[in-house]
Every structure is written in structure tokens, then in C-alpha cells.
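Hello support,

Our group uses your service weekly, and this is the first time we've seen a run hang past the timeout. The protein is Zinc finger MYM-type protein 1-like. I'm not sure whether the cause is the sequence or the server load. Input pasted verbatim:
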Amino acid sequence: MERFFKRKSSSGSGSSNNVDSSNTVGSSRTPSSRQSQSDGVLGNLQADPGLRTRMIDYDANMRDEVRRSYLQKGPCQPRGHNFPITNMSGINRRFIPQWFDEFDWLEYSISKDAAFCLYCYLFKTNFEQVGSEAFTGDGFKNWKKGRERFKMHVGPVGSVHNKAREAATNLMNQATHIETAVSKHSDQARKAYRTCLIASIKCTKFLLRQGLTFRGHDESVTSSNRGNYLELLQFLADNDDKVKEVVMENAPGNLKLLAPCIQKEIVNSCALETLDAIMDGLKDRFFSILVDEARDVSVKEQMAMVLRYVDDSGHVIERFVGIQHVTDTTSSSLKDAIDTFFSHNGLSISKLRGQGYDGASNMRGELNGLKTKILREQPCAYYVHCFAHQLQLALVAVAKKNIDIASFFATANSVVNHVGASCKRRDLLRGQLQEELVIAFENDCLITGRGLNQETSLKRAGDTRWNSHYGTLISIISMFSSVVHVLQMVIDDNPNESAGEANKLMREIRSFEFVFHLFLMKVILGLTNDLSQALQRKDQEIVNAMALVKSCKEKLHWMRNNGFDALVDEVSSFCEKHHIYVPNMEDAFILPGRSRRNAPIKTNRHHYRVELFIYVIDEQITELEDRFNEVNTELLICLACLSPKDSFVAFDKSKLLRLAQFYPQDFSDEDRLALEDQLEIYIHYVRSMGDFSQLQGIGDLAKKMVETRMHQEQNGRSMVE
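Update from on-call engineer: The timeout came from a worker crash unrelated to the input. Re-ran successfully.
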């Protein structure tokens, strides 16, 4: 808040006109020469208003001195002068000296025989850059309408003349001068303002943490209708005599810091101070960035950024550093936004050692993705992303790339939405399921036990909800007959648009193709479900995670080569149970809606095995290979060798030396040779010390090394970088 307080304390200071001082009277290069020239200018001020230098031609730093000097001398009023007579329209007229008594601002130029205004000459340029020069430049000479024009010149309140007169009064009254007003901000006033500001910040923090409005009325906070913010101020005053005296009793009525612009300014000042504190903590350390983009409620693209680094104590620190609006979410726009942030906060891309995004194409693209653009500038900024998130994106990508699978998921979602569209349909689904359970129990076909056969419903799938697709498919299979029964009841009871949609869904789900897609995706998602669950565990070891990924790939390869016939048998059995037509796999496949004459000749086996089964599995394997690539996998496996778990059982010197090769900017050839010997000393030391025996992760190891000072350099290099 120091920035906000200083800015507020210095607000109201005047600003000078933007004038080139090299072409103005009294300009100077040094303070001493400026003072001497200032004395010379003030000593030779022209008294005659018709011969004076224009005020704008004086140096901006000495205009107030010139004005004050003229005001001290007063207007030029040569009362004893023999005013010349001028013939105007056949009548002799001249300046009347009694006008000096009526208009104290009036001046007369002997050289031009014209009247001028002292105040407008001194201050008119502050309020009006263009306009009549009758009383400032050329002078007024129409003596016939003298008094009338003088009154018109003065004008109403707020006229240029009256503003200039007020400026002259303020200049001569030093007690109200802006510099004097600023200097009168005593320490006591500053402390009082700081107290108000701190009280306001406390209220703001409380309301933000509780998710309450500033001006709204919430019964959990307020006991009156004054609003949450003012009620909290009153609460602070009741518990702090200093706040009560400064904020509630002696503060001006408009110093409640309640205006939206003031509160936004406080928040922005807090954000800047927080960002400065984060940058001070980061210092010159290596760091990585986490970036994600999304739309806010106003449909504006926003980029959020997080910095990740290790502090002096060995703790892994993650700091959210802000949200920035971007015109679009292309890789170029995001890269420009990151470069701008680095530039404004003094960060160097040479210190960047990692990057993480959501895995979208604009982020991870091999040719023009954000990852690639950063790697071109900093090859050591390796891209590693959340394993569980990558797996989920891989599964969703299959649905997006294959039109048949995409259509299948669209139908499945429509079934879930249609059956669960109303409470009545949900009740029908539950009732039908209970009837089927009773029948199965009576026929001794139901397995009973604790926790089995619980009331359930169709699960809704969502791309952002991990494993939700798998749960949806399982619920559709287990409740298939109940779903069909509910759809049939909708068709029979409601001959309208809803019935038409139900009839369409009925035809689609009671087809061999839908059931084949249903069981195919159930098997694939089932193979990866355990992996997805394991990758979401916080305590998951990197080596185990990589082993699970490898196992998942092997299972998919085995299924591709050996699992088709077993899948067809399972699908056929399900179709026979629910009276769904099962085509002969050796018959010719005819795509619905296509002419048999123009259709390519292929069997049902070829379509379901090659075009669906193998294609979908190959796409899944490709996605897994792409997202868990060899470089990232090797990097993480090498890093996992530092794990202190089970007395450093994962330690592997060759892999740690390989890890050093990933960072040629930090480890030279000589460093890697020395590191080989240092690692031998390191592993012997940590295994022999009891302090390292109970550590569970690399983060714990980093903190323990700082505590034991092993992170400090020895012989020019640290024991372990």
C-alpha cells in the first residue's frame, strides 16, 4: 500500500505547460544560471502593457515569479497622462481616467493608446488558448462604448476574466497556494489517512474472503441496512479506539473510501505490491510458468499465469501472478502477452526451465504451438503437463476425431438428457429399475449383498469431468432395458415433439452399431480408467506413473490384435438379450441411407473391425504416444532418481548424469565430469545420515538439503545442483 499512500499524499500538485524552455524568456541549463537570469528578467519587466512580453514566452519555471511581480506592482494606470483625443465617426473621444476607479484591473498603454486587462494578461492562457485579444494582445480602443465593453469583459461568474482574477488571488494568498497546501500534510494527517486506508483494506479482505457484496445487506454481517462495508467499519471502530477516533468521528464525510473508483484503486495497488513482493522472492532464480486461457463472464479471452520456483528454504513455491486480457488465444498472442509480462517485471527467459499448459493444440503444437515458440528461444524450458489431464484430453480427442464415435457420444448424451429431463421421467426410470430388480431376485438371478443393488440413475458425461464418460457408459449398459422402457412410455403417452425425439433415440440405441460403440468405448475407457485414477493421486511417484502409462499402451496394443472377436461376442450376447438385430459379420455392409449400387463392397467384419475397432484404438494409442512423448518421459524418469523414498532406492547415477545433459546451459562438459564423483559422495552421505532416512519426496529432500547446508557451493559447485 506504500505506493497508493504516496500517490495519494502527493495528489493535487500542479503541472507545468509543455513549452520548449530553450525558446522562452529566462530559460537556463543550470540552477545558478537560472537564478541570475531570473533576477535579470524580474528587474527589467516592461510596465507598459502594450510593450510587454507574452506570458507564454516566459520560461515555465519562472512564470509565477513574473506574475507575482506584476501583481505586486499593480496595474499600469497613468492617471496624470494627457490622454490623446481620437475622432470617431465625427465625434472626438478619449480614454476617461475615472474608469480606473471603477475597474481596478484596467490598464492603459501610452504607446498604443489602448486599454488592457492585467489579470487576463497574466492568466488567460491557463483557461483559454484562443479567443479575442482585445484586452491582452491588441488592446481595446473603442472609447465610445468603453464602460459597456468593460462590463462585458468582466462577464458572469465562471468567465475567463473571473477565473483569471481568482487565480491571481490564489497566487498572492500563499496560505491557499497548492504548494503550501501540500506541505501542510503533517505527519499526523498522514498517519490518520493511513489508519483509514488500513481499516478499509481489512474490510475489503474480509468481504472478499466471505464472498459478500460491499454495498449489499447481508444479515450474517450487518445488523442494520447500512451495507456490509460500513457495518464492518463500525465494527472495527467499536473494537479499536484509534479507528473510532480517526475514521468514524474526525474523518471528513467523503473520506470513507467507499467510492468504486477508490476501492478499485486500492485493489490495484494491493495487486502491484503483491506482484512486487513475488518478484522480490523470485529474485534471480530458475522458474517455470503455468499458463491457461479461458473466457470470463463478459466473453473476453483471459490468460492466467502462475510462476513456480524453489525459495531459499527449499520449498516449492507457486504464485499466481495475474490475469491478462488477450485479443485471441492463438499461440502468437499468448507468446506476446508472456513476453510483455516478462519485460514489465524484469524476468529473463534465460532463467525459464519449464512450461505447463492445458494440452490444447494452440499450446502444445509441434510446429507453431506456444510450447514450440518458447523452446526456440529457450531449449531448456521443457514442456511437462498434468498426467491425469493429458489422459482425459486424449480420451476426448478420440471422440472429436472419429465421426462415428462423436455421433455415438452425442446420442448417449441425448439419451441421458431426455430420460432425465423431468422428475416424472426420473421416477419412471427408478420404478422400472426396481421392478427389474424384483423380477431378477424372484428368478434367483440377482447377486445380493451389502452395498449391492443400490438406487442409481443415469450419469451425465462432461469433457471437463475426468472419468465421467466411463461412468455414463456403465450406467447406460446396466440400465439399458429401463431406459428403453421409459422412452417407450414417453412415445406412448406424449404424441408430440418430445415423443418424436424419444422415437428417434429409441431407433438409434436399439441398433447393433450403437451397442458396438457402447461396448467398444466402455472397454477402452475401462483400460484407461485405472490409470486415470492413479495419475490423479497426489502421492503418485513418477516412476510408477510412467510404468502405468506403459502398461496402458501395452493393453491397448494387445486388445487391438486379439480383442475383436471377444468384443463381438459380448455385443451379440447383449443384443440378443434385448432383442436387437445382430448382422452377420460376413455379409456385405450397407451404410444406412446409401444406395447399394454405389456403395463400396465390404463386409460387416471389415467395417466394424478395421474402420471402427482398429481405427479408434490406433487413434487412442497415437494420442497417448503424443502426449507422453519420449523426451518428457525420460526427463521425468531421470528426475525420479533423486527420490529419497525407502533410503534412496531409486538412485541411479547414470540417469542423473543423463538429466544433467538435458541442461547444457547449466552443466558444461567439465561440470558433468565432476558431477560423477560428487554423486558418489552425495549418495554415501545421505544414506548414512539419519536425517534423510524418513524423507518421502523430492520436495522434502530439497528442504532437508537447505537445512543441512548441502545446497551451498563447495569448490565452486554445489554437491548436487
